[in-house]
Structure to design on (118 residues):
């Protein structure tokens, strides 16, 4: 699985950005696509995830501001980020996990930088 992320950039506090992550190559019918973020000196943290059955999860810090979705073929995940804060500044990474009874595969995309200025 190859992951291509896009949509990062610079925005002022209160603004919005939309990230996209497209998965290509091998496709697992059941999978979870997630967004993580990382800043220097801190552990990478889960921002949002969405499984193929529609189950979603969000970090407490982004609930009510960020929304994750996937397109109909489930190969692209989007992260709509509204009401951005300077604390949201980070490199955002797309993650794809396929977990079955006999396998557990995890793939990472390259990060896309989000910068929020006050």
């Amino acid at each position: 699985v190859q992951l291509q992320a896009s949509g990062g950039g610079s925005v002022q506090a209160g603004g919005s950005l939309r990230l996209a992550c497209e998965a290509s190559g091998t496709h697992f019918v059941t999978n979870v696509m997630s967004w993580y973020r990382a800043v220097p000196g801190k552990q990478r943290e889960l921002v949002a995830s969405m499984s193929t059955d529609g189950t979603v999860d969000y970090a407490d810090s982004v609930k009510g501001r960020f929304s994750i979705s996937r397109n109909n073929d489930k190969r692209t995940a989007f992260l709509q980020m509204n009401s951005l804060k300077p604390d949201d500044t980070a490199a955002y990474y797309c993650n794809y996990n396929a977990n079955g009874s006999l396998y557990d595969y995890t793939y990472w995309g390259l990060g896309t930088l989000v910068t929020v200025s006050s």
About this structure: The two ends are 37 Å apart (CA to CA).
